[in-house]
Structures are given as C-alpha cells and as structure tokens.
Amino acid sequence: MEANRLIEGVFPPPAGIIPSLKNPDFISGGIIPISVVFLTLSSLFLALRIYTRVRAFYAEDYVIIVSWFFSAAFTATCLEQANNGNGRHLWDIPLGIFIHYGRWAAASIFLYVPATALPKVAILMSYPRVLPNKSVRIGAYTVFAITIVYVIVSCLALLFQCHPIAKLWDMSMPGHCVLIPQWLASGISNVAIDIMVLLVPVPGLMKWEVSTRMKVLAGGAFVVGSL
Q: For 214-226, what is each residue's pLDDT tens digit?
C-alpha cells in the first residue's frame, strides 16, 4: 500500500495526458525567491523597530516579535509545500508525497491566522497610548476583542473541519470533511478587520486641536504604520 502511494498520482490524468511523477511540470518557482525577499524585509524592519525602541520597549513590541516568528514559520511551511507538490498537477504528485504536502498546508493555515492577526493587535495596543481618548480606547478594545475571537474561531473551524482530524491532510482516510473556503473567508475577515483598525483612531484625530493639515498627516502616518 505504501509503495503504491509513491508510484500512483493523487488523481488520474485527463484523457490523452501522460502523468510524469519524476519530472513533472512545475509552476511555483516564484515561491522561493518571494518568500526569501519578504522574510528578509520583515526581518530588517523588525531589527530597525527593536533598535529604535531599545530604551522604551512597549507591550506591542513584544507582540510584533511574536508575530514575526509566526510569519517566519509560515514562510517555512510554504517552502516545504513547494518541495512536496505545490505548483504541480495532481496526477503528477504521488499520493504519499501529497500527504506530506497536506500536513505542511494544514500547518501553514494555522500559522497564517496569528501571523496576520498579531500585527493588528500590536497596532490596537498602541492606539490608547498614542491617542489617550475615551472613544479611541473603547474602539481599540472592541476591535482587539473581535480580532482575538477571529483567531480562535478560525483555528477551531479549521481544526475540526475534518473527522478524523488527520483527514485534513490525508484525503484517502475514511471519514468526512466540511468544505470551508478558508483562504477566501480569511481574506474577507482580514480586510474587514483592517478597515476597523484604520477607523479606530479617527475620533481621536477629529478631536485633536491642531490644523487640518496636521490631522491629515497624522492620519496618513497611521495608515502607513498599519500597512
């Protein structure tokens, strides 16, 4: 059985197509350079942040550091997916290798959620300190709670979408799965939370007793910082 998993593709090829398990077509060559470039950039920005905050470290700085580790781990899982079938036709991937790919893919989803949520949490934690305004504080705490609930619900939904759980990465196992478009759902949720994060400081900026130009510049600084 194990030998068949290494010589048979995940799915049979379409009519007229000859599978190639040894030298398959590969279209994900960009994953490696893109991952290296962006991990390097994020590492550089993190190092600059730590350098500038060395004398005054805040709680959100520790959150950013933790989020970087999640991001680095997520990048590693993407690279492993590229080594285990990502970018190939399913009929060109042996079932045994596809199971390894599934494990890394499942891990990447669980890492992606906190990796994208924690930077939002760090920004929200900084708002009450930068803009000591009651409405800003309430808004920051509210969106903070929404973000934490999003992380918990997303991870639980992904963890229990298949029964048994191992079927999440080994579709040949008996059992059943509830189809969840996780990347679409996660993308929509992230965009919605991003918008809320950007809107939180608006009441504080509106009440700021400075010129309109300064308010616009400060708002632009918050937007750039959120990106």
A: 666 666 666 555 5
Q: Which residues of 163-186 are buried (b: 16+ CB within 10 A; e: fewer)?
A: eeeebbbbeeeeeeeeeeeeeeeb
Structure tokens at 191: 């965009």
Q: Are β-strands 162-163 and 176-177 bridged in parallel, bridged antiparallel, or unpaired?
A: antiparallel
Residue carrying structure tokens 């893109």: 34
Q: Tell whether pTM > 0.90.
A: no
Asked whether the beta carbons of 160 and 178 are under 8 A apart, the reply is: no
108 CB contacts (<8 Å, ≥6 apart)? 74, 77, 78, 81
Q: Does an H or E element contain 40, and which?
A: helix 31-52
pLDDT by 10-residue block (mean), the chain, 227 residues:
52 66 65 86 91 85 94 90 74 75 85 92 89 87 94 87 83 79 78 89 71 64 58
Cis status of the peptide bond prior to 164, with omega within 30 of 0: yes
Nearest to 156 by CA among 165, 169, 143: 165
Give the integer Cα–Cα distance in Å for 202 and 193.
15
Q: Which two tokens stand for residue 58?
A: 């805040």
The three-point CA angle 216-221-224 to 5° equals 125
